[in-house]
Amino acid sequence: MRVMKTVKDISNQNVPFVTIDKSLDKLRDKIFFSEKLEKANKVLSTAKLPNKKRSC
Amino acid sequence: MRIEKYPLKAESRFTRFEFISEGPKGEIRKRIEFQETTNSDVYNLAFGDFNPQTRGIDDLATSDNGDTEKVLATVAGAVYTFFDKYPDVFVYATGSTKARTRLYRMGMTRFYDKMKKDFYLYGQVGDDFVEFEIGAEYDGFLAQRRF
Fold this sequence. Notes:
Order of helices and strands of chain B: EEEEEHEHHEEE
Structural class of chain A: mainly alpha
Shape of chain B: globular
Order of helices and strands of chain A: HEH
Shape of chain A: flat
Low-confidence stretches of chain B: none
Oligomer: heterodimer
Radius of gyration of chain B: 15 Å
Largest sheet of chain A: none
Number of helices of chain A: 2
Strand content of chain B: 35-45%
Helix content of chain A: 25-40%
Strand content of chain A: 5-15%
Structural class of chain B: alpha+beta
Number of helices of chain B: 3
């Protein structure tokens, strides 16, 4: 018998309830956090990233 | 332990999210973005309040809406959702201010036991990234999904 997930089960998951909102796609080209992006790019230009772990 | 989160709205590529914080100061629209950087392996995590006056995002706002833990849990949830879609990249995060960076650290510390099982977590010290340790000060943070 299938057991329906309760609200409790759902709220215990890592991922919150996510719905796609197409209206957000309209803002795709707008950069909202330009200063943060600049700061990140500056850090990444000199930072030594850790070796990326690969899947087995 | 169960931690409450807000429902998220996402654009179709799952790089931009919105949710509404609810508390004593009313409803506050929050935005989370995973931005492409000049390094194609790294996305930058940005997070702030939507300002209805300027129709921009204020990443310096401290909304004090009494729901910090729920907000941090929701941002962590967005990170999980993003990595489900983009499992092979790093996510970098740093605050606009030292206080905001501390808030990020607080979030990572709060959910560390869970997150360390799912992510490789690093703290930024100058130009280096070291394994994240609770209690240490960092300039920024980096995460990679565990497989």
